[in-house]
């Protein structure tokens, strides 16, 4: 993306002189950039989640002006879902991916993982109707087995995916939504592998008539993690939890759970971003003190800190050192009393706090983002069994919930500020089972 900016700038005038599809799509891109900087204060218009079943699909629900959900659309991803296993080899759900971030959103781009097909799918969300998703290109290989978390950097125009199966590790892609920019994706790919475009694998060859938009690989091979897993993996211990760009896209972070049974230590991987790409060198792996099962993260804006959940005790505030080798250490570990499986986290801009959910307890816990202290425990009386993935936007917090008859989305209103979250809806997802995972809003 960085290397494309001069090109975009030189073409920007086109919009004012012509009405070509190229010009209007560049204009959309500019709007998208402006919106991504301004829109975070407003409530979303829609939420998206993944069924993660055999006919993997993105379920989109409308968000009304009062914050409540109503039916929207179901869009197949063109791939299959799959869940991990317990020690006895039984497929698990909810939380079958052992992950946070199985669906990611940035502006109008949405990416979903297909854990059973080893692919990821890019969609474009209509700017006029957020329930209308259009697949961009075809699903592409995730370069490993059991993709379970994905992240998008708007700044870099890139996405990275984590795989937690037999071939475990991460891989990165350029997001190409404009066919005229496909050749530039080729250039950055070839720069990275030091080969002229003529030597590139066939599927990367420039062919404007075919699949010239979509996800273009930036890596030639998986960046492997030594998990020695199977496909599907046995978990939740000894699996990858989440991959995410940090807030200024200067590093790609990945949380990996250890395995207490084998004294295997979990770690936080950090790859630096160099020259507009996730570098293949300079990865650091930190073992923040006291953590065992690093799970979902919430970046704390305006700091180098992140709040990471750990289902072995609660959550930890973790900070990186200022030195060139980004190592992370535990600043505060917060034991959450009575917790069973604190795994998912979301930072809420309007309250300055982090909300975490527990797969084994039906409650929402709010944590102070500077001290890590528990602000409030909201016990829900809606009858669900627990909550997994969580996403916050504006004054609304959405969490995936589970009951006897399948998946739900629980909506919380945080407009009254810190410590005053209120449950406003428990929306039953018809026909969506407990395999559902991932949640984002736009
Ligand atoms: C997959 O799901 C979509 C959306 O609900 C539906 O339209 C389609 O018929 C399903 N395909 C199969 C093979 O079940
Ligand atoms: C793990 O470490 C503990 C403490 O050092 C030790 O007692 C135990 O035997 C180790 N377990 C395994 C499986 O290595």
**Total of DSSP H or I helical runs spanning 4+ residues:** 4
Outline type: globular
- The CATH architecture designation of the largest domain is 7 Propeller
Bound molecules: 2-acetamido-2-deoxy-beta-D-glucopyranose
CATH class of the largest domain: Mainly Beta
CATH superfamily of the largest domain: YVTN repeat-like/Quinoprotein amine dehydrogenase
Number of domains: 2
Distance between the termini: 22 Å
Helix content: under 10%
Global Rg: 21 Å
The assigned structural class equals mainly beta
Q: Tell how many strands the DSSP assignment holds.
A: 31
On the 0-100 scale, what is the average pLDDT? 87
Largest sheet: 5 strands, antiparallel
Strand content: 35-45%
CATH topology of the largest domain: Methylamine Dehydrogenase, Chain H
- Identify low-pLDDT runs: 1-27, 33-40, 194-210
């Amino acid at each position: 993306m960085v290397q494309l900016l001069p090109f975009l700038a030189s073409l920007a005038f086109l919009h004012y002189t012509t009405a070509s599809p190229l010009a209007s799509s560049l204009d959309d891109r500019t709007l998208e950039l402006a919106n991504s900087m301004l829109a975070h204060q407003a409530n979303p218009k829609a939420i998206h989640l993944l069924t993660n079943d055999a006919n993997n699909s993105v379920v989109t629900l409308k968000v009304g002006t009062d914050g409540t959900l109503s039916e929207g659309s179901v869009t197949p991803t063109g791939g299959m879902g799959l869940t991990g296993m317990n020690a006895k080899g039984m497929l698990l759900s909810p939380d079958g991916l052992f992950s946070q971030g199985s669906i990611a959103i940035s502006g109008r781009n949405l990416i979903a993982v297909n854990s059973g097909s080893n692919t990821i799918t890019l969609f474009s969300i209509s700017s006029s109707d957020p329930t209308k998703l259009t697949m961009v290109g075809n699903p592409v290989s995730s370069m490993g087995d059991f993709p379970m978390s994905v992240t998008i950097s708007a700044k870099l125009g890139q996405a990275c995916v984590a795989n937690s199966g037999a071939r475990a590790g991460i891989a990165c892609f350029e997001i190409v939504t404009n066919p005229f920019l496909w050749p530039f994706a080729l250039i950055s790919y070839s720069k990275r592998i030091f080969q002229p475009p003529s030597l590139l694998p066939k599927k990367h060859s420039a062919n404007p008539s075919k699949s010239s938009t979509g996800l273009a690989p930036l890596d030639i091979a998986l960046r492997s993690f030594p998990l020695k897993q199977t496909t599907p993996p046995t978990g939740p211990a000894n699996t990858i939890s989440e991959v995410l760009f940090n807030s200024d896209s200067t590093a790609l972070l990945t949380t990996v759970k250890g395995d207490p049974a084998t004294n295997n230590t979990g770690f936080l991987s950090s790859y630096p971003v160099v020259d507009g790409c996730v570098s293949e060198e300079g990865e650091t792996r930190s073992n923040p003190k006291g953590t065992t099962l690093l799970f979902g993260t919430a970046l704390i804006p305006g700091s180098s800190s992140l709040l990471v959940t750990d289902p072995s005790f609660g959550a930890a505030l973790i900070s990186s050192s200022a030195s060139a080798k980004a190592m992370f250490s535990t600043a505060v570990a917060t034991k959450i009393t009575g917790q069973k499986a604190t795994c998912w986290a979301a930072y809420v801009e309007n309250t300055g706090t982090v909300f975490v959910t527990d797969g084994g307890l039906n409650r929402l816990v709010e944590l102070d983002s500077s001290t890590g202290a528990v602000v409030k425990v909201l016990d829900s009386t809606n009858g669900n069994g627990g909550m997994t993935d969580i996403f916050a936007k504006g004054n609304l917090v959405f969490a995936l919930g589970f009951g006897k008859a399948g998946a739900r989305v629980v909506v919380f209103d945080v407009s009254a500020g810190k410590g005053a979250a209120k449950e406003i809806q428990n929306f039953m997802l018809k026909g969506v089972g407990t395999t559902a995972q991932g949640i984002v809003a736009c």
